[in-house]
């Protein structure tokens, strides 16, 4: 039976019972009708619960269920109207306003409202009676009762069936075989293999089971297909059958005795295939029984399951058991093997076959099925099948959708099934944000407040189940370990569409579309009747104002990036609306006041709208739980936001100085959670006022940002008043110990308050940032915080020393034991440390008697010009960046440390006194992949690079004026992909001795603006067999240039930037570079023509012409038929473009950029001589000012 219908009935019943419980005054006059409705729905619910357990295939019964669902929706809408009216009256009473009789609300006087609701409920009861009569007349309920119990069709597996095509899992097979045949100290070691249906779990388990090493290692191998029936006695008997034994009796004891006799002194492998049971006690019972049967060490149980929770139950410590998707190449290999049975694949099948493999999205099941379907088919049939897609290929119970539906049928509740079905509204491959998905479920009424937990809690529970069941995949975590977003596999998305009956949301032949997603640029014509059925509308374009009220039953309206300028006042008629998203509509500046009549609204997203202010009565949205907006610092908050008592998400709060806008408003929002940025704290008067925000009483806020405006000027003559004032305010803002992240910006005090300086209670902090606290004289002690991972100190310009106290309180720091000795550890979890814009910092003290930074991977020190002393103990450092510093001592102290061997990236910027790098830097750090040296003008020596020859991928040297030659082992950098030497004025030599491995991985080579360089070694260029981009320009004395036409890479080069040196012969060979797509030519003032060979580059897409002395561009430029973009820079004598006819032959040209060509610039303006030649070009830019063509 369709579980979505059952869920609709359940939601409606819950609302009915809530109305009956709350005794709304509004229900007087039709209470008996409500009771009748409740009785009818309860009776029907019992039938649905039974039907949900059975396989109902009768077409007439299914149509009856569909009618029932329609009436349930109607009932839900009526009950929602009652709830809305009650909320409306509650707001009016709270605002001490008498109900106004206006045009919009005139219909809803109490008497008229009761009469209208009574009439609607009676009609629903009549419909329900008719549906019940129809069921009795046709015997529907009897047919349901007689239907066979619904069980997922599960194919029993075995250990013998051959798997002729085994692709893409060889590494997994080897890893698992190695694991189970190695030394095992447990009696039974459990290895779970988890993944979505059809991903290849059983196939892999069978390969492991039948592997020669497995057969040799284990005395007994046993295979049991468990599926839905996890019954310990039954499993034990199945094991006995697999061993070809029988017990003396059917009792569990008899079976156990026989098993113990058979398995004692033996090492066993047991495969439990397709396990679903999520009860730990059942698993413990089975495992204990097996340990009683065979107490020997070295036994292994392999469990295959679709559910990650099952995997964590059978082995809580195994986190690497999930099978990943196959690659597209692997899927194509399976399809080829099945479709052509090992024979040759005709070339014209290759392209379409690979496209079909891509559709399989890494599923071996889909690949096998598609290969079987394609076997013997003609190319036209392949194309047709590719257009249909794997999910729509008709098949038996082994088809993809049916295999995946087994998991769907096992979801524990009809509400969860409806939540899964609702995911079909997302496009394929969409990144789905967890919080947003839960809010969408809330809006549809799929989630309820149960047993003291709120809707969000239930939503998170549902999300976790879908993730554990592989319905949601590829989860991404935030820095606190919480899952932020995920994706849905394409085949699972097809299942979602299948169960929701929403594969095509916009088809005209679907009479009652409930959830509508419109991806077109404009909203198609939708009749008023069809619009009234919709409960979700997601559109990328605006809905005409006149049509919006037609969608009168909407729960969710998403107009994100719909290019709308305003919302109509008629939006207030969408009284059922619970989720409204108009984010990223940059032209919206105001919201209609009528929006404050949406009393059911729970989620409101107006991020990236240029709002001037929010409606004053937004506090009337008493159901609002999540408000997303990002105001400017001077944005006025609406007054009395405290009345939004259900609010959980409020990411920004701008403190005001008017009544109802002060910081105390936050103290009344008891349910706030997540993150909040509190701005304009200069408007808070003292500690007592700050305490009214009640931040220390809110356990659910995990991210806090405090901001003072720097430009604020207080009306006082005392210079230190603002300092003391800020210190007092920050003292009152002490947060709850659950805080994970804190940012303090613009604080003007000299001293942080005690809770900040010591942070003894904030031991859950993961991230700390102190920014632009210009008067601060001392950094807080932070080293004792056990979980701190990210620390940023920026703009603390008054701090002169990072003192020993920085490393934390002695009695609070983490400790570790080594050889019986207790060692104090400071910053035990820190991974990233950034210190920048601290211009007066001179000293960073070395810690004494303590282990520091054992996990630090990323260190950046920027714009600390006076710093001379730093610690040198960074044992795990991977990335080091030092930027803008006078002394080279800090850098030398860090990189000369003997314990620094882990560097992966080293960036050095503008160190005035740096003359050389330490000799053993590259020998010690043999994993170094990125080395950047920027504007170190005195740098004269770079040591041998050979130590990181196998790892270095990028080498950049810019503006090192004293550098005269590069290391002579440059050719040993076999992994180097990018080499840039730029602006090294005195560089004379690039040594390249013979016998080196060569730059075989180099893809990009830039040697530019090196005025004294006279030649490039041809051996170096010859070794660059992978080169795709070459830039050699403005090397004024370069007279010797290798012969390019003989290079291996000559016919594969894609980007060439060349010229600006004495030897101009090189320009003559560029016409042979047929593969170049981007060409940048540098000339000289004495070069008055372009090389004519240029006209042969018919694949050229982008052309730059710079610094030439030419007066007119040749007409043969019109032969460059692929040209899309042209740049003409710094050609001072250039007056004319090619002829109009030549320019118009450049049919693909869409962009022309003219810069510093004064004679041409004037002629190219509208109404001048050259304008007709370029008026057809889409975009023309002259001196960085865009001129649009006519």
UniProtKB/TrEMBL annotation:
UniProt key word Repeat: yes
Keywords assigned: ATP-binding, Leucine-rich repeat, Nucleotide-binding, Plant defense, Repeat
CDD domains per the UniProt record, alphabetical: RX-CC_like (cd14798)
Keyword Metal-binding: no
BP GO terms, sorted: defense response to virus
Domain R13L1/DRL21-like LRR repeat region intervals: 663-795
Ranges for domain Disease resistance N-terminal: 9-94
Domain Disease resistance protein winged helix: 425-495
Residue span(s) of domain Disease resistance R13L4/SHOC-2-like LRR: 1051-1159
Domain NB-ARC residue range list: 178-341
GO molecular function terms noted in the UniProt entry: ATP binding
InterPro entries tied to this protein: Apaf_helical, LRR_dom_sf, LRR_R13L1-DRL21, LRR_R13L4/SHOC2-like, NB-ARC, P-loop_NTPase, RX-like_CC, Rx_N
Family recorded in the similarity comment: Belongs to the disease resistance NB-LRR family.
UniProt name for this protein: Disease resistance RPP13-like protein 1
Organism: Abeliophyllum distichum
């Amino acid at each position: 039976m369709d579980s979505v219908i059952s869920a609709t009935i359940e939601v409606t019943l819950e609302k009915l019972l809530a109305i009956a419980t709350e005794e709304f005054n509004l229900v007087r006059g039709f209470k008996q009708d409500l009771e009748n409705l409740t009785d009818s729905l309860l009776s029907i619910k019992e039938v649905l619960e039974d039907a949900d357990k059975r396989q109902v295939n009768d077409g007439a019964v299914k149509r009856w269920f569909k009618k029932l669902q329609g009436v349930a929706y109607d009932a839900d809408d009526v009950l929602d109207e009652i709830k809305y009216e009650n909320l409306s009256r509650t707001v009016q009473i709270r605002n001490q306003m008498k109900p106004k009789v206006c045009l919009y609300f005139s219909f809803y006087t109490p008497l008229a409202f009761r009469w209208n609701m009574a009439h609607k409920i009676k009609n629903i009861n009549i419909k329900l009676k008719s549906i019940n009569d129809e069921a009795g007349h046709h015997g529907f309920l009897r047919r349901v009762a007689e239907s066979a119990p619904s069980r997922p069709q599960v194919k029993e597996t075995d250990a013998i069936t051959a798997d002729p095509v085994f692709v893409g899992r060889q590494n997994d097979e080897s890893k698992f075989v190695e694991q189970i045949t190695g030394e095992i100290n447990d009696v039974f070691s459990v290895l779970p293999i988890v993944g979505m249906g059809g991903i290849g779990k059983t196939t892999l388990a069978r390969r492991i089971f039948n592997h020669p090493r497995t057969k040799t290692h284990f005395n007994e191998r046993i295979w049991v297909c468990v599926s839905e029936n996890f019954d310990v006695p039954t499993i034990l008997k199945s094991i006995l059958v697999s061993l070809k034994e029988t017990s003396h009796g059917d009792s569990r004891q008899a079976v156990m005795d026989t098993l113990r006799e058979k398995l004692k002194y033996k090492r066993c492998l047991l495969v439990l295939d397709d396990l679903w049971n999520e009860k730990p006690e059942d698993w413990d019972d089975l495992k204990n029984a097996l340990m009683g049967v065979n107490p020997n060490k070295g036994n292994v149980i392999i469990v295959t399951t679709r559910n990650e929770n099952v995997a964590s139950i059978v082995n809580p410590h195994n986190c690497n058991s999930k099978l990943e998707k196959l690659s597209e190449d692997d899927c194509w290999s399976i399809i080829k093997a099945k479709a052509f049975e090992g024979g040759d694949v005709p070339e014209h099948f290759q392209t379409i076959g690979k496209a079909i493999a891509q559709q399989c999205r890494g599923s071996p099941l889909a690949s096998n099925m598609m290969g079987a379907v394609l076997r013997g088919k003609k190319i036209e049939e392949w194309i047709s099948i590719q257009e249909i897609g794997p999910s729509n290929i008709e098949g038996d119970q082994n088809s993809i959708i049916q295999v995946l539906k087994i998991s769907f049928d096992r979801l524990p509740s009809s509400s969860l099934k409806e939540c899964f079905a609702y995911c079909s509204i997302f496009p394929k491959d969409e990144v789905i944000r967890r919080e947003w998905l839960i809010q969408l479920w809330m809006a549809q009424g799929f989630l309820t407040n149960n047993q003291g937990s709120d809707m969000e809690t239930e939503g998170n529970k549902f999300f976790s189940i879908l993730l554990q069941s592989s319905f949601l995949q590829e989860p991404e975590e935030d820095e606190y370990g919480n899952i932020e977003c995920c994706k849905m596999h394409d085949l699972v998305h097809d299942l979602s569409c299948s169960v929701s009956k929403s594969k095509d949301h916009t088809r005209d032949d679907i009479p009652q579309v409930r959830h509508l997603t419109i991806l077109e640029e404009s909203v198609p014509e939708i009749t008023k009747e069809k619009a009234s059925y919709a409960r979700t509308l997601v559109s990328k374009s605006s809905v005409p104002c006149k049509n919006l009220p037609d969608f009168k039953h909407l729960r969710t309206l998403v107009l994100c990036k719909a290019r709308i300028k305003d919302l109509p006042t008629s939006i207030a008629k969408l009284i059922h609306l619970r989720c409204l998203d108009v984010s990223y509509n940059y032209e919206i500046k105001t919201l209609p006041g009528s929006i404050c009549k949406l009393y059911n609204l729970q989620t409101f997203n107006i991020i990236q709208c240029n709002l001037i202010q929010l409606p004053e009565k937004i506090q009337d949205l008493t159901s609002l739980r999540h408000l997303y907006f990002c105001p400017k610092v001077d944005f006025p908050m609406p007054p009395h936001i405290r009345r939004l008592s259900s609010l959980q998400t409020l990411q920004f709060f701008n403190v005001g100085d008017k009544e109802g806008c002060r910081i105390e408003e936050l103290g009344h929002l008891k349910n706030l959670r997540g993150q909040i940025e509190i701005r304009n704290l200069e408007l808070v008067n003292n500690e007592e006022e700050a305490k009214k925000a009640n931040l220390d009483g809110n356990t659910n806020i995990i991210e806090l940002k405090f901001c003072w405006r720097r430009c604020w000027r207080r009306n006082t003559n005392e210079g230190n008043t603002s300092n003391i004032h800020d210190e007092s305010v920050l003292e009152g803002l002490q947060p709850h110990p659950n805080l994970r992240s804190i940012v303090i910006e613009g604080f003007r005090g000299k001293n942080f308050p005690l809770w900040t300086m010591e942070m003894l209670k904030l031991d859950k902090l993961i991230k700390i940032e102190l920014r632009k606290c210009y008067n601060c004289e001392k950094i807080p002690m932070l080293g004792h915080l056990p979980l701190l991972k990210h620390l940023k100190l920026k703009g603390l310009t008054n701090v002169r020393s990072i003192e020993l106290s920085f490393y934390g309180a002695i009695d609070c720091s983490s400790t570790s034991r080594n050889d019986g000795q207790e060692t104090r550890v400071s910053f035990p979890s820190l991974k990233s440390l950034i210190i920048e814009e601290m211009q007066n910092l001179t000293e960073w003290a070395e810690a004494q008697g303590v282990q520091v930074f054992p996990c630090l991977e990323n260190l950046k020190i920027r714009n600390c010009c006076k710093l001379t002393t730093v610690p040198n103990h960074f044992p795990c450092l991977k990335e080091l960046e030092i930027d803008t510093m006078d002394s080279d001592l800090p850098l030398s102290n860090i990189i000369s440390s003997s314990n620094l061997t882990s560097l992966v990236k080293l960036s050095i910027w503008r160190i005035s006194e740096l003359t050389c790098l330490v000799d053993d830097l590259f020998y010690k750090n043999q994993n170094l992949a990125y080395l950047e040296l920027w504007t170190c003008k005195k740098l004269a020596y770079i040591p041998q690079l050979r130590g990181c020859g196998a790892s270095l991928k990028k080498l950049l040297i810019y503006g090192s004026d004293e550098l005269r030659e590069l290391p002579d082992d440059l050719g040993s950098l076999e992994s180097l992909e990018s080499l840039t030497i730029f602006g090294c004025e005195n560089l004379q030599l690039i040594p390249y001795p013979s016998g080196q491995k060569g730059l075989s991985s180099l893809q990009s080579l830039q040697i530019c603006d090196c005025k004294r360089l006279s030649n490039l070694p041809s051996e170096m260029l010859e070794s660059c067999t992978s080169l795709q981009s070459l830039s050699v320009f403005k090397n004024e004395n370069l007279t010797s240039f290798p012969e390019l036409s003989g290079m291996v890479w000559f016919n594969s080069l894609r980007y060439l930037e060349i010229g600006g040196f004495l030897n101009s012969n090189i320009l003559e060979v560029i016409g042979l570079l047929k593969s170049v797509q981007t060409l940048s030519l540098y000339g000289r003032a004495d070069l008055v023509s372009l090389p004519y060979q240029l006209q042969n580059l018919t694949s050229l897409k982008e052309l730059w012409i710079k610094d030439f002395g030419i007066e007119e561009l040749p007409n043969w430029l019109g032969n460059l038929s692929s040209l899309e973009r042209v740049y003409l820079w710094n050609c001072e004598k250039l007056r004319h473009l090619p002829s109009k006819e030549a320019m118009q032959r450049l049919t693909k040209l869409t962009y022309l950029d003219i810069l510093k060509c004064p004679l041409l610039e004037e002629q190219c303006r509208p109404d001048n001589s050259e304008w007709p030649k370029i008026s057809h070009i889409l975009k023309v830019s002259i001196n960085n000012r865009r001129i649009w063509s006519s």
